[in-house]
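Submission sheet (multi-component)
Chains listed below:
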Amino acid sequence: MPAVLEARSVSKAFGGIRAIDRLDLSIRDGEIFGLIGPNGAGKTTLFNVVTGMDFVTQGMILFEGKNITKEKAFNITRRGIARTFQNIRLFHDMTVLQNVMVGQNCRTRCGIIHAAFRTSRLKKEEKKIADNALEVLAFVGLTDHAEFRASSLAYGEQRRLEIARALSTEPKLLLLDEPAAGMNPQETKALMGLIEKIRSKGKTIFLIEHDMRVVMGICDRILVLNFGKKIGEGTPLEIQKSPQVIEAYLGTGE
Amino acid sequence: MEAYVAHLLILIGIYAILTMGQNIILGYTGLFGIAQAAFYGIGAYTTALLALRMGIPFWVGIVAAAFIAGFMGWILGLCTMRLGGDYFCIATLGFVVIIQQVFLNWENLTRGPMGLPGIPRPHVFGYFFDSRLSFCILVWAFVFILCVVMNNIAGSRVGRAFKAIRDNEAAALAMGVNTLRVKILSVALGSFYAGIAGGLFASYTGYIDPSSFSVMETIIILCMAVLGGMGSITGSILGAAVLIVMPELLRLAGVTGSLSVYRQIIYGMLLVFVILMRPQGIIGKVEFRPIAAIKEGRLFRAV
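Outcome: structure written.
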C-alpha cells in the first residue's frame, strides 16, 4: 500500500538559502504525523510546497502514489489535500457558514448560467452544499455561530472554523499549521480530541505544532526539522530521547 | 416636468446597471478593474452599428452588445489578470483610453468624432418605445432583471468564490478555487452588464460619439460604486441616483457655469472622502431584501 504522502529528496531554495534540504518523508494512511522544529526550520515552507502554494527547487512529492510536484494548488486540493494556515486566513466578511461552504466549491459544478437563473440543478446543489456545511460545523461544534460574520468569532473559534473549512473540501490528508497556537489548556485538550475524531473518520493528519503536549500526546510519529534538514524521525518516545533533537529544539527541561 | 423626471430616472437606471457591473468586479471579487466605460462604449457602438448598418432590431442588438462586451472583458481579463493589483488597475484604465481612441479613429466604422446619429428606439409588435415614460419602464425592467441575476449569483457557489477571492485569495486557492479563472469570469460578467447599459444608452439618446466613453466616465462609475457601497446591489442604485441627481439639484439651485472643470476635482475629492470617512459607502454592509422584508418584517440584512 503506497504511503499517503511521500517526499523524495525535496529541496526548496530561496536564492542562496536552503529552506528545505533534501528531505525524505513518508506518511502512512490514518497516521497523525507531527512536524516539529525551531522557528525558521522550514516547516511551513514544506506545507506550502506540498500544497502547491510554492514550488520545489528539486525533488518529488507523491500523494497516494501519484506525482503532484508540479500540480497547481487548487488541483491539489481537488485531489484530496487540505490545509489550515498558521496566521488565520478566514474569509472575514463572509459568514461562518459561507466560509465552510466555499470548501465545497471544488466538489460541485454549477457555473454562472445556473447561478444567474437559479435553475433547479443549482438549487439542489446549493442545498447539498449547505447541508454538508452544517454537518461539518456540527462536527467541530460551531453550529450556533453559523450566521455570524467570521471576523466576529473568538480566536479559538476562528481556528476551529479554519479546520471546518478545510474539512469541507473532503480531504484525504489534512495539513494543520500550528492549530493550537494561542490556545489555553482547555481549548488545547478539545483540539486534541477533535484531531483524534478527524482521524477516526479515516483521514490522515500532518501536523505542525510547537505545543509539546499536543505533539507528544496525539502523534504516532514525528519528524524533526532544523535548518531545512531532518535531524530526527520516530515515535514520540524515540524523539524525546534523541540527543540531536534535544540539543536543537527540545532543551533539557527546567 | 414629467419628461425631465423620466429622463433622470432613465439615466439613473442605466448608470445603476453600469455600477452593478463595477460592483461585481470590485465589490464582490475585490479587483480594482476600472474599465467599465470601455465596455459601456463597446455595448453602445455594437447596438448602434447593428441597428444602423444592418437594420438589426434592439432586442437582438442588446444581446449582442452584452455578449460582445462580455467577451472583450474576458479577453481583457485574460491579458491583464496576472499583473499585480496596481498594475492591473492601470492596465484597465489604459484599456479605456485605447477603446476611446479606436472609436475616434476607426472612422470607416464609427464615423469618428462625428458620432452615430439616428439610432432607433426599440419596438415590439409595432409598439414603439417613443416616449420617455415607456423607455423609462423598459430601462427599469432591465434593472430589475439584472438585480435579480446579481442577487442569484451572490447567493451561489460562483458568488462565494468571488467573495472568497476578495477576502483572502491565498486561502481561496487553498480551498480549491481556480482563482485565475474566477477572476477573469468576474471581469467578463461586469463587462456584460456594462454592455447592456451601453445598448440602452445608445437606443435612448439616439446619438453616440466617443466623448461619452472616457476615463472621466469610468471614474464616475467607480465613484457611484464606492459611494453607494461596494458589493451592494442597493448601493449600486443609490450611488447612481445620488451622483445623477446631485449635479442636477446644484444646477437648479443656480450653481452652473464651467462645472465640468470642477467636476473632476469634486469626484476625486468625493472618492477620497468616502474611502477615508465611510469606506462602506452610504448603504454600508447591508442589502435591501424586499422578499425577506415581507416574510420576516426585517428590511435589511447583512451582506
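Remark: DSSP finds ten helices and ten strands in chain A.
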